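Format notes (please read before filing issues)

Several people have asked whether sequences and structure tokens are stored in separate files. They are not. Every record keeps both together, in the order shown below: the sequence lines, then the token lines. Line labels are part of the format and must not be stripped during preprocessing.
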Amino acid sequence: MTRFIFITGGVVSSLGKGLSAAALGALLQARGFRVRLRKLDPYLNVDPGTMSPYQHGEVYVTDDGAETDLDLGHYERYVGVAARRSDSVTTGRIYSTVIGRERRGEYLGATVQVIPHVTDAIKEFILADLSGEDFVICEIGGTVGDIESLPFLEAIRQLGNELGRERVLFVHLTLVPWIASAGELKTKPTQHSAKELLGLGIQPDILLCRCERPIPPAARKKIALFCNLRESRVIPALDVETIYAVPGAYHAEGFDREVCSHFGLDAPEPDLDRWREIVDLIHKPEGRVTIAVIGKYTHLPDSYKSLAEAMTHGGIANHVGVDLDWIDSEVFETETEAVHKLEGVHGILVPGGFGVRGTHGMIEAARFARERRVPYFGICFGMHMAIIEAARDLADLPGAGSTEFGPCRHPVVGLMTEWTRGNTVERRNSTDDLGGTMRLGAYPAMLAPGSRVGSRIIPGISACNSTRNSSPNLSSRTRCSPPSSAPHSISPAWFEMSLGAIPAISPSPPLGAERRLRPEW
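Then the structure lines:
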């Protein structure tokens, strides 16, 4: 029997619903349960693929090629279960489904309304594509009180009645702010948020209270009294130094114990030794390395969330701390001495992006890495910039460029306009839709035996990588060591080997071979 846990948020956004869902999933998994996590986003975009990173952070790409919210990256990193297209839905996708059904006449002439047609489509999504999981944890995006999220809240209210309380649990994440001038924590925002949710027909079963200081017993009792809960179900969620300490912190406060109690489950205590090991490695590294990230959206680190976590994981696997130096690629275009910002770094990473803005700076970073023999990792757009730099400087092609930016003299990187998918030929041009048009996700990449890539990189990755396993996916990894202690003598092959030790990480966006023109961000 599959049980459903719905996590909502109140008071303010950015409280960490995604991390809370992922941490709870890890705790239940550590107790021996099969877990799946899903995200319901209330915005009208069909998916976040065409959204500016400044609007919603990175686009996390699943193995089956779906462009999803960055929280799905947290889910994968915490529970080690590959997310699927069916684990992410938006209001735009729900409405597209409903309108498509109406156009096909599936509603038999009925007046199509939010209730029941839209809410029914949401419930279908929540219940679909399951395979015997013990728990499905669904995060509802946005904040209670937002008009956009009302259909989702109504849908989960209905599911609570249809499935029964023995199969449904509501968790509400709120804020208990510290007011410095008063010298105390205030519970009123949490009370009002719970009241707002209750007004929509949902009585929260557990309150998860984000706070920067411990909640006094009297305040905890007050929250329980006014929110109609037992005191043990008011769970403090204090700030921690690293997100990988969240599962242990939640367990110490009894979060997973109260979840099991609600469902009447007598489960063994979770084994959190591996999580403690990870936290210990983060706090006590054997050394530190500095990686410069040259990007277009560095003002918002969430734009590269998976890359940042990938670096953290690679550091853990090699017992070192990783310091990321976020550098806006445009500084290399405006400051003549900006290239000196790269002096002393152990590696340079240029991630994905779209549009011509900032590309000159990325090319300069690629040149610096090549001439100084600093390990360089170009992902998608970053790889394109390295190719253009090499073509201009080494192949004597000063007009080298990419057709993504328009016509150029030497198009060493070109948009694909025709390819074969199965037994059919697909064609696209600059007038086609932007969304959902790249080849994304996991697919076989056949590398020619004896080629430079096939002979140098793959053996190293094979030695350091392994298949997915249960969370956290770090302790079973083979530790890799550089061939030399000198920072700039680390070979590109070794740097890629270190990244090969990263568990359950899907860089965003991965290898978009059929890149499409996007608006300039």
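For reference, the curators noted about this record: The chain is about 35% helix and 15% strand. Residues 292 and 342 are 7 Å apart (CA to CA).
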